[in-house]
Design brief:
With 138 residues, the protein is an all-alpha fold. It contains 7 helices and no strands. The two termini are 33 Å apart.
Length: 138
């Protein structure tokens, strides 16, 4: 086996491992399904209320229908328009959830005040862009 190839492949594996870990700790993610990952697991009732609020804003009856539409590549705006939902309520709900997450991160010291301020100022545009973007499955 070529030693140069072994070193290159090994370096790539280590880099991907570290990069995957770093990306998973991103402060804000625009992916619509992220709403489930940003809610702490010890708040199951809160999670169910948020899920119900999102489904209500999208005018959908089940989360299975919602996930199916997302996997079909539809944006949140497309889902809301298709079901006579309220995209402004969807955006407001996501901004509120991400803002709470930022508040928690600032309170526990995982981000600085400067990072908090910068990320908070981008929330509305980030969520609006996310709501208008279709995510096709890989």
């Amino acid at each position: 086996m070529n030693m140069k190839r072994v070193i290159i492949v090994g370096t790539m594996i280590v880099t991907m491992s570290f990069a995957g870990t770093a990306w998973s700790k991103s402060a804000i993610t625009p992916i619509p399904l992220a709403k489930w990952s940003i809610i702490s697991m010890n708040a199951t009732d809160q999670s169910e209320q948020n899920e119900d609020a999102l489904l209500h804003a999208l005018n959908q009856t089940t989360d299975a229908e919602f996930v199916r539409d997302l996997y079909a590549g539809k944006s949140l705006r497309m889902i809301a328009e298709q079901n006579d939902g309220d995209i402004d309520a969807v955006i407001a709900l996501q901004v509120t959830q991400l803002s709470k997450q930022l508040d928690e991160r600032l309170a526990n010291g995982s981000i600085s005040l400067e990072q908090y301020t910068a990320q908070q100022s981008e929330l509305i545009s980030l969520v609006t862009e996310s709501a208008n973007t279709s995510y096709l499955p890989i």
